[in-house]
């Protein structure tokens, strides 16, 4: 049996989730239902659950602050977030590889989340990544997991991102780069509200503010302020040229 607790300030949400768990996930045993973060912290210390169903938007404390109440070596439980958050936050969940359930909760998605939990145990690095990205909703910075640590990147200092299969290489203006174990699609969705970031090729996202030249030669490419070059699709090349014309007016 999987020992679990629910932390959610809405009684109806707690009841609904409990009923879904009882009907569709008999392998999960709820040992506590908590209406705020303070109760949740006490229950975690008392019950030592393997799994926590955690709402994020609660009065007093955000669910993301749960990590602040424990030392790293005390976090021996996994978290499945239950949320009604907006699109940007959902992409932050995906980038951090953290499990989440959108409210109202779909029974099959609950079953899938439990199955995924049993395959992989909680990774503290992923939770910290999520927390930091949600705290920077203004999209000036992103937090990415790199080699066992969390690196904070100023979006304005990114030249471009290169997709390499299930990895993405992030190149910065200071000539450093970071290889992240997330695909390019994850970053495209996370950065879709950043006005300067543009998917210009199947393998590249470019920071428009650092592009200094474009060319139709060799199939099309853009050049950055550090003289590096990356390919651009014909469709995006036309879009960039039109954007430049518009800005010149």
UniProtKB/TrEMBL annotation:
<dbReference type="GO" id="GO:0003677">
    <property type="term" value="F:DNA binding"/>
</dbReference>
<dbReference type="InterPro" id="IPR007492">
    <property type="entry name" value="LytTR_DNA-bd_dom"/>
</dbReference>
<feature type="domain" description="HTH LytTR-type">
    <location>
        <begin position="142"/>
        <end position="246"/>
    </location>
</feature>
<keyword id="KW-0238">DNA-binding</keyword>
<feature type="domain" description="Response regulatory">
    <location>
        <begin position="3"/>
        <end position="118"/>
    </location>
</feature>
<dbReference type="InterPro" id="IPR046947">
    <property type="entry name" value="LytR-like"/>
</dbReference>
<dbReference type="InterPro" id="IPR001789">
    <property type="entry name" value="Sig_transdc_resp-reg_receiver"/>
</dbReference>
<feature type="modified residue" description="4-aspartylphosphate">
    <location>
        <position position="55"/>
    </location>
</feature>
<dbReference type="Pfam" id="PF00072">
    <property type="entry name" value="Response_reg"/>
</dbReference>
<dbReference type="InterPro" id="IPR011006">
    <property type="entry name" value="CheY-like_superfamily"/>
</dbReference>
<dbReference type="Pfam" id="PF04397">
    <property type="entry name" value="LytTR"/>
</dbReference>
<keyword id="KW-0597">Phosphoprotein</keyword>
<protein>
    <submittedName>
        <fullName>LytTR family DNA-binding domain-containing protein</fullName>
    </submittedName>
</protein>
